[in-house]
Amino acid sequence: MTKEKGKRIRLRDGRALGYAEFGDPGGRPVFYFHGFPGSRLEAQLGDGEASRSGVRLIAVDRPGFGLSDFQAGRRIVDWPDDVSALTD
């Protein structure tokens, strides 16, 4: 897959969610969630193996990191709603 620095989608609450894709664009989708500190760019380290394994690696920036907007009052239980926006 062509290396990309990232994309952004707009969430229902108006925030931007940043992500990047690596590996096989037609492969089985697998999400990568970085730790603290970190960003979607960590997943680029797995690009070669993901390509060889038929995996489409989707790396998402957590709120306030990388290309994702900060979320005031954020709770850990809010994260799945953000990620589900990418699956639609």
Give a nutshell description of this structure.
By secondary structure, this protein is of the alpha+beta class. It has two helices and four strands.
How would you characterize this protein structure?
The protein is α+β, with helices and mostly antiparallel strands. It has a single domain (7-87), classed as Alpha/Beta hydrolase fold, catalytic domain (Rossmann fold, 3-Layer(aba) Sandwich). The chain contains two helices and four strands, in the order βββαβα. The protein has helices spanning 47-53, 79-87; strands at 7-10, 16-23, 28-33, 55-60. It has a four-stranded mixed beta sheet. The model has no long low-confidence stretch (mean pLDDT 94). This is AB hydrolase-1 domain-containing protein. InterPro entries: AB_hydrolase_fold. It comes from marine sediment metagenome.
